[in-house]
Automatic annotation (TrEMBL), chain A:
Alphabetical list of SUPFAM superfamilies matching this protein: Molybdenum cofactor-binding domain
InterPro entries, per the entry: Ald_Oxase/xanthine_DH-like, AldOxase/xan_DH_MoCoBD2, AldOxase/xan_DH_Mopterin-bd_sf
Pfam assignment, any one: MoCoBD_2
GO MF annotation list: iron ion binding; oxidoreductase activity
Domain of life: Bacteria
Biological source species: Pararhizobium mangrovi
Protein name in UniProt: Xanthine dehydrogenase family protein molybdopterin-binding subunit
Domain annotation Aldehyde oxidase/xanthine dehydrogenase second molybdopterin binding: ranges: 4-265
UniProtKB/TrEMBL annotation, chain B:
GO molecular function, one term: iron ion binding
Domain 2Fe-2S ferredoxin-type span(s) in chain numbering: 4-80
SUPFAM superfamilies per UniProt: 2Fe-2S ferredoxin-like, CO dehydrogenase ISP C-domain like, CO dehydrogenase molybdoprotein N-domain-like, Molybdenum cofactor-binding domain
Taxonomic source organism: Pararhizobium mangrovi
Chain positions covered by the region annotation Disordered: 580-607
Protein name in UniProt: 2Fe-2S iron-sulfur cluster binding domain-containing protein
Superkingdom of the organism of origin: Bacteria
Pfam families reported for this sequence: Ald_Xan_dh_C, Fer2, Fer2_2, MoCoBD_1
UniProt-listed Gene3D superfamilies: 3.10.20.30, [2Fe-2S]-binding domain (1.10.150.120), Aldehyde oxidase/xanthine dehydrogenase, a/b hammerhead (3.90.1170.50), Aldehyde oxidase/xanthine dehydrogenase, molybdopterin binding domain (3.30.365.10)
Keywords: 2Fe-2S, Iron, Iron-sulfur, Metal-binding, Oxidoreductase
Length: 335, 628
């Protein structure tokens, strides 16, 4: 066996979107504001994944303004409607859809007034990127003008939305039930190099194909895949929280080893879109699912490289060497 | 203590300050100069969130005593550009989406700026190495590298400035790479996380934590601590006015230990005082008498008859057991031509968000108890707190501050209750910021797991039956354990249609650090086992790993492990996409790495040998110098 051995492995995965085995719900309020800007209120948003930006894109698209014209007031139980928690890969699905519904209602208010003022059928009205117009006419104004006109007629264009995902509980005996209404699937391939003297594993490439329903911000989706892959890689190869008789042994980052810039493989993301038929946006989610296939793909790749199967995570250099030693012993016995 | 007089230049301004001699440069910047763009992620030189320039060189300000800064010139993230402006590095971070939670980002921007100042022509490998002292838990670094390369080229003039501009759209904002709206505040260090916030009259909290894994508390005497000048209040479980207890599924955890402690690091009492130092001194004056109890440190031991009981309500130590039954596994295994039996385990994992837990609580003019913190579940937290402090829901308000990374770890209400109680007792705003060590010992981890797996297959590779049993260590409190076990069970056998299954997932109490919510919520642990089994089966059957997965994958109309009928399943599409993108060479997974033809493509990175790239870069610079 050469010192440095390479190999590849694959792993597939699946995941459910929004809260598990229960009904899930989220609410939002929207208002088309002066200057053709917009306000959106919802109860929970950013934990770093980019949901604020995504919601502003959804609001912009639904209302006909620009994302940077949307102000999102959020995260306050006393000032915004309930949207529950930032987890369960539910934000795009639950809050994205409730914001879309709230914006549709606000826009409908605006469009009703403009249609009456212009004496055109409301179905002919369109708005995008700060402009509102009536199809096959030369009537076209800015959203700023549209909001002013609406308010002059005595109407504030506001709306609210509530979105529901119909999960059901599991039977306590056989577990039957429909825990989610939307599922996503993913597959990753890993390419590794194993140093058979030190036991060190380097992940050189990851190909990550994930269904997200609809990618509202493709770069944001990639960011979630890249972050998930690197957390998965950390769990696969190095991270190990340990206690001794309940006392933490790995109590700082000197002892608890995390992936750094030098550990990161080239990550090749492939976004697959299988839109969700049960929601206005068709988008599902990617936050958690991106992490799942990485560790098994890496373990399968290590096996491909050196023929040693790692069943216990993480695959530290010591474990890899021990597994290699065990394999050599077994090979010698059968030979 | 005598104060230290310091003269230095910070962001172009001469500054004279009298400071506490124990101050680090980081404290001087954050506490005295309000330059909170410089963050404290670890306080030990390991994460890089505190990076600044000292006389032009990149330094970790948590490692530098303030006294050493005498006479130096300091540049922080706030000094890189004028307010409202961004440097090319910052604009490139904005462009590529390099900031997620943003907590590492000021430090990353400093490290990137330093890398390009040191070598404006640095290649990607050198950039990676120069930024190796900065941890990011969110982004997977990829978009950060992309940003630094763009910035390098723009600064060098080999890319036009327009490369930093936003992408335009003519038709739709759905599917558009809209730049993150919060990026400018993150790349400039302007965004205030809870630990960066201050309020008038604000007190500082420190927490006394259990040194025992399992012990009865016979007495807590807080009188000496209360008498210490500068202390405003000391709180224990006796200060809880309502029904004590929180948790995501079962409310089994008191705000502070009640009668006994169940894990090392559990909160026992807390002090609010004028300064952090006084609060810390006061915690040492709290006398707690413990009677140690036998501890449980292994989930299998927890199930043994006669094992110590951790919670009275659960005499068997079981937090939750989730069973799934579908078809009949006896029939399924009888029909199998190959049966594989294996065991797998996964470890406890720390979230390691770079922002340690922090929060501020106050009681407002309308008697509304308000908690500002990076909570991932403000809705549920306000429900629980309203019961705990016995106030109507509209007198409890939770505000979610910017979250510097969560990943599930900030779903548990492990400190907000203490903040609320001390704000109520002292009548002042109170702030608590965890140290990294505190965060690691007191917050929940990913559930470790042990899985026994039996899989039956036909010669063609169709799975006929699966018997799957997972035991997990939930640690001292229930937190999200129930939900994690449920999700592990539902997803257990992977994206494959299996007629006959018997799945059991069980989580028990021990005296280890609690396990809780962590990105994938049990899905990762279960599918690690399944995906390893699929490859082992493929090898035995001589099948390509993609092929064996295709032969079993779910389709529209498939019945899941919980007997739900799927309307659609995109597994066929993602398998094909990964196979094509990776240029996969088909064949069974029988250790053919040495003979594969699909390795080492342009879509992989080169293996790294530390230092080699530096040497190479130096070599190139030398060569260039000689040439010019
Ligand atoms: S390196 Fe200074 S805070 Fe982490
Ligand atoms: S963006 Fe780097 S730690 Fe969150």
């Amino acid at each position: 066996m050469k010192r440095k051995m390479r190999g590849r492995g694959v792993a597939a995965s699946w995941y459910g979107i929004a809260r598990t085995a229960t009904i899930d719900r989220a609410g939002a309020w929207a208002e088309l504001d002066d200057g053709g800007t917009a306000k959106v209120l919802t109860g929970v948003t950013e934990i770093g994944e980019g949901i604020l930006t995504l919601l502003s894109q959804v609001a912009a698209e639904e209302l006909g303004v620009k994302p940077e014209q949307v102000t999102i007031g959020d995260n306050d139980t006393a000032r915004s409607p309930e949207a529950a928690h930032a987890g369960a890969t539910r934000q795009t699905y639950m809050i994205g859809n409730s914001v879309a519904l709230a914006c549709r209602e606000a826009k409908a208010r605006l469009f009703d007034e403009i249609a009456q003022a212009w004496e055109v059928p409301v179905e002919d009205l369109r708005s995008f990127d700060g402009f509102l117009w009536a199809e096959s006419t030369n009537k076209r104004i800015t959203m700023e003008e549209a909001v002013a006109l609406c308010k002059k007629r005595g109407v504030v264009p506001v709306g609210s939305g509530s979105f529901t995902a119909h999960g059901t509980g599991l039977d306590p005996v056989d577990g039957h039930g429909s825990p989610w209404q939307a599922y996503v699937f993913g597959t990753q391939v890993a390419e590794v190099e194993v140093d058979t003297i030190t036991g060190e594993v380097q992940v050189l490439g990851i190909w990550a194909a994930h269904d997200v329903g609809r990618a509202i911000n493709p770069r944001g989706v990639e960011g979630q895949i890249e972050g998930g892959v690197v957390q998965g890689l950390g769990q696969a190869l190095m991270e190990d929280y340990q206690t001794s008789e309940g006392h933490p042994v790995t109590h700082g980052f000197a002892k608890y080893i995390l992936p750094t810039s030098l550990d990161v493989p080239q990550i090749n993301s492939v976004i697959v879109e299988d839109p969700d038929p049960l929601s206005p946006l068709g988008a599902k989610g990617i936050g958690e699912p991106s992490l799942i296939p990485t560790a098994p793909a890496v373990m399968n790749a290590i096996y491909d490289a050196i023929g040693a199967r790692i069943r216990d995570l993480p695959a530290t250099p010591e474990r890899v060497l021990a597994a290699l030693h065990e394999k050599r012993r077994a090979d010698a016995q059968t030979a | 203590m005598p104060e230290l007089e310091l003269d230095l230049t910070v962001n172009g301004r001469r500054i004279t300050r009298h400071v506490d001699p124990s101050y680090r440069l980081l404290d001087l910047l954050r506490d005295d100069l309000a330059l909170t763009g410089t963050k404290e992620g670890c306080g030990a030189g390991e994460c890089g969130t505190c990076s600044v320039f000292v006389d032009g060189k990149l330094f970790k300000s948590c490692l530098m005593p303030a006294s050493k800064a005498q006479g130096t010139t300091i540049e922080t993230i706030e000094g890189l550009s004028r307010p409202g402006e961004l440097t090319p590095v910052q604009r490139a971070f904005h462009k590529t989406g390099a900031s997620q939670c943003g907590y590492c980002i000021p430090g990353m921007v400093m490290a990137a700026t330093s890398a390009l100042r040191e070598n404006p022509a640095a290649g990607i490998e050198e950039i990676k190495e120069r930024m190796g002292g900065n941890i990011c838990r969110c982004t997977g670094y990829t978009k950060i590298f992309e940003a630094v390369e763009i910035a390098r080229d723009v600064i060098a003039g080999t890319l036009p400035e327009t490369a930093l501009n936003p992408e335009l759209t003519k038709t739709s904002y759905i599917g558009h790479n809209t730049r993150r709206l919060d990026a400018p505040s993150k790349v400039s260090g302007r965004l205030k996380y809870a630990g960066d916030m201050e309020m008038q009259g604000m007190l500082h909290m420190q927490v006394l934590r259990s040194p025992h894994a399992h012990a009865r508390i016979s007495r807590i005497d807080t009188s000496k601590a209360e008498a210490l000048p500068g202390v405003h209040c000391v709180i224990t479980c006796d200060d809880v006015p309502g029904e004590d207890g929180f948790g995501v599924f079962v409310h089994d955890q008191p705000i502070m230990a009640r009668g006994k402690v169940r894990h090392v690091g559990e909160a026992v009492a807390a002090v609010a005082a004028d300064t952090v130092r006084i609060a810390r001194e006061a915690t040492k004056l709290i006398a707690v008498e413990y009677e140690p109890l036998p501890g449980l440190y292994d989930p299998e031991e927890a199930l043994r008859p006669g094992a110590p009981v951790i919670h009275d309500y659960a005499a068997d130590n079981v937090v939750k057991h989730i069973p799934l039954r579908k078809g009949d596994i006896e029939t399924g295994f009888a029909a199998a031509e190959l049966i594989i039996e294996e065991r797998f385990s996964t470890q406890q994992v720390e979230h390691a968000y770079l922002e340690p837990e922090a929060g501020i609580a106050y009681v407002d003019h309308d008697d509304v108890v308000t908690v500002i913190s990076p909570s991932q579940n403000i809705t549920h937290h306000r429900h629980m707190l309203s019961t705990i402090i016995d106030k109507p829901i509209n007198k409890v308000r939770f505000i979610m501050s910017p979250v510097g990374g969560g990943f599930g770890g900030k779903e548990d209400m492990i400190y907000q209750g203490m903040l609320a109680l001390s704000a109520m007792k002292s009548g002042r705003p109170v702030r608590l910021v965890f140290t990294r060590e505190e965060s690691i010992m007191a917050s929940a981890k990913r559930h470790p797991s042990r899985t026994s797996y039996r899989m039956g297959l036909t010669k063609e590779g169709r799975i006929t039956a699966v018997e799957f049993s997972m035991l997990s260590d939930g640690g001292a409190y229930g937190m999200s354990s129930e939900g994690v076990m449920r999700k592990a069970a539902i997803l257990s056998c992977g994206p494959y249609e299996v007629e006959n299954i018997k799945v059991d997932t069980t989580v028990v109490y021990t005296n280890n650090t609690p396990s809780g919510a962590f990105r994938t919520f049990g899905g990762m642990q279960a599918q690690f086992a399944t995906e390893s089994m699929m490859d082992m089966a493929a090898e035995k059957l001589g099948l390509d790993p993609f092929e064996i997965r295709r032969r079993n994958m779910m389709k529209a109309g498939s019945r899941t492990h919980t007997q739900q009928t799927l309307n659609s399943a995109s597994i066929d599409r993602v398998l094909e996409a990964a196979e094509t993108a990776s240029r996969w060479e088909a064949g069974p997974p029988n250790v053919r790495g040495a003979n594969r033809s699909d390795l080492d493509g342009p879509d992989t990175r080169q293996p790294c040998t530390l230092g080699a790239r530096f040497n190479e870069a130096r070599h190139q610079i030398e060569k260039a110098k000689v040439a010019s």
